[in-house]
Amino acid sequence: xxxDQRIGDSSASDSPAHPEQRRTGDGTSSQQGNAxxxxxxxxxxxxxxxxQRPAIGLRRSDLTYKPAPWLLQYDLTxxxxxxxxxxxxxxxxxxxxxxxxxxxxxxxxxxxFYAHGDVTASLPLVCDCCLAPFACPVEASFQxxxxxxxxxxxxxxxxxxxxxxxxxxxxxxDLTGVVTDAICVALPSVSLCxxxxxxxxxxxxxxxxxxxxxxSTDSxxSTDSxIPAGGGAAMEGGExxxxxxxxxxxxxxxxxxxxxxxxxxxPSAIAN
Length: 272
What we know:
Layout: H1 2-14, H2 30-51, E1 57-59, E2 70-77, H3 78-81, E3 99-109, E4 112-126, E5 133-147, H4 150-156, E6 163-165, E7 172-174, H5 176-186, H6 199-204, H7 232-242, H8 254-271
Parallel strand pairs: 5-6
Antiparallel strand pairs: 1-7, 2-3, 3-4, 4-5
Organism: [Myrmecia] bisecta
Pfam family, one: YceD
Protein name: DUF177 domain-containing protein
């Protein structure tokens, strides 16, 4: 009986007080391993936050190394702006090699900042007709007000999207949305490559002059507006000449003719 009691006491003393504090193969307890894993997860999250910086961010530290105004330049690619997520028909394979340059001028205005910039890019768009990729040069400009008062930002952000909140406790302002909006506005509504195999581009003459596209021009037509040099009266005279009727002289502008007709109808309307 005494031997059995000793064996039981020794087995009880060897067992850990808490089942979670069991030794692992490397000599550390399970609680220490869990703490190490939690710290590793925290470090990974911190690194992920650092990597998830905005593509075009204005850091407050960049505005303190010298007096205003400041000149900043961002050399990016089309992949950094993620224009494909905004509905732009863009060639994703060539986005990584398409340069985008943003030149930003920043000046201090009161407690906030005023910034205006220029964007120069060559975007790999996709033709809407033949679906062929082509490089489209884009030039755009934008301006943004970095407001330091959060209360004013809440009331003005709804009306003006070019106002970005930048209070004193914020270390970096994200200007990526302002730049992408300026690029989307500068893009053509219809993307045509004007290549030799694209029928829509050859017919529309995109990127070609009138002689290269095979158009015949007449000296009587205005090349800027597509209206005859003599206005609406010249157009009417040309149509009558084609129909075999003599062209009549213009009787003034269209507005004057309409006013004269209205003046002739007034007495009959008053009599009725």
